[in-house]
Design goal:
Elements (H helix, E strand, L loop, with lengths): L8 H15 L2 E2 L4 H9 L8 H11 L3 E4 L2 E4 L3 H14 L6 H10 L29
Length: 134
């Protein structure tokens, strides 16, 4: 199905889940894939990444927006990227329990292990975690 075929909230959640699984976490103001997605969706959906992310966060607990980055909490790769970005920003300890409790509440939704490349297959000089300018 193309983005233009997304007509229901369930289809939107499913489509964006597949989208984020493929493209990884998306910075809402920088990353091109999420901006193109917003332009391709039918007019009934928000056409800015920030509005779309807010809508998705209301529709499903699987979507998290932290520091203008849209994460998929049900994906192990996204959870690792989220932890990395939190460590880079060095968020105050007060904010961490809320974020980690959301992640733990979805911990039973681990992605299939085959979707995560084994560390041995990664190039040693290239970090496999996506870094964001925060």
């Amino acid at each position: 199905m193309s983005a233009m075929g997304v007509r229901t909230e369930v289809q939107l959640v499913d489509y964006v889940t597949a989208f984020l699984t493929h493209f990884g976490p998306q910075h809402l103001t920088i990353d091109v894939p999420v901006r193109l997605l917003c332009k391709c969706l039918p007019s009934m959906w928000p056409h800015t990444p920030t509005e779309l992310a807010e809508k998705l966060a209301k529709l499903s607990p699987h979507f998290l927006v932290v520091n203008d980055v849209l994460f998929l909490s049900s994906n192990a790769r996204h959870r690792r990227s989220l932890v990395d970005s939190l460590q880079l920003v060095n968020l105050s300890v007060q904010n961490l329990p809320k974020i980690f409790s959301m992640l733990l509440s979805n911990s039973h939704l681990h992605a299939h292990p085959n979707h995560i490349p084994p560390p041995s297959s990664l190039h040693p000089n290239i970090s496999h975690h996506r870094r964001f300018a925060l």
